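S.,

Sequence below, as promised.
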Amino acid sequence: MDSQVMSVAERRAVRSTYRSLRLGVVALIALLVSAVVTEATRAGCWLDSLSAYYWTGAHDAVVGALCAVGALLVAYTGTDDVEDALLDAAGFLAFVVALTPTERGTGCPVAAAAEVPAALADARTGLSALVLVGLLVAGARAAAALRAGRTGTAVLARVGVLLVVVVPAVGLLVAPDLVVAGAHAVAAVLLFVAVVGVVVLRAFAARAVSSRWAIAYSLLGAAMLLTLAAVVALHAAVPTWAQAVLVLETALVGLFAGYWVLQTVELWGVDVPRTPRARLTTSEPAEGRPAVPR
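The prediction came back faster than expected:
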């Protein structure tokens, strides 16, 4: 009897932890957006990108939120190996975006931007520490996948994440100034690519569970791709539109937050991924073992 009660308590604790991880991502995105809006309201103008707010009074909230989101994405376990790898890559890239500042943005008078110590512009220390830890984590997970005899897809996904960390690590050894100068822009683009990949992948996976969820995720994925295309086209047609990048980033962040909320609703009462071979809930633990929410 005690073991049965303990099993239920453990399942409840694990499920609650996963829910907190998911809700934490949404809360941190709200923190990031709120800090940017507050700073823009105080300054009376908008900079040309979210990243440009690194150099303003929103600095701490922007860096802290991005780092925290990165940590949560790495900690969260996806519903399959590829999604999990994309989330890990997105998490690492979010750290890179946070720790490697872009240039001061345009759109506001220089006087409106708060002064940040010059040392914060040199990202070599933070980026070096990040790639060292990233190599340890990604290497350990890739080795664990190999040792556990996981499928080829799982191993390739883990190797892919490892490469995302290895490339900047090698770059810091060979051409550190070049890496520091370009890391932010490259990481930001790859971060959005990974995020869109997660949404599209979930749209395909959801077809085996519910056409309703599949349609919802497909619409979100399409909206992300269309937003990217529309803003790029408008920016090309109207090159004087200084806030094109800001609009694009805000729209994609908002759409990803919408996806994350939607998936949280879908998986709120589910203990394991709902795939064709596993549609279990808390009332149907697999083979007598506590089910684990994904």
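Residues 41 and 109 are 14 Å apart (CA to CA).

Coffee later?
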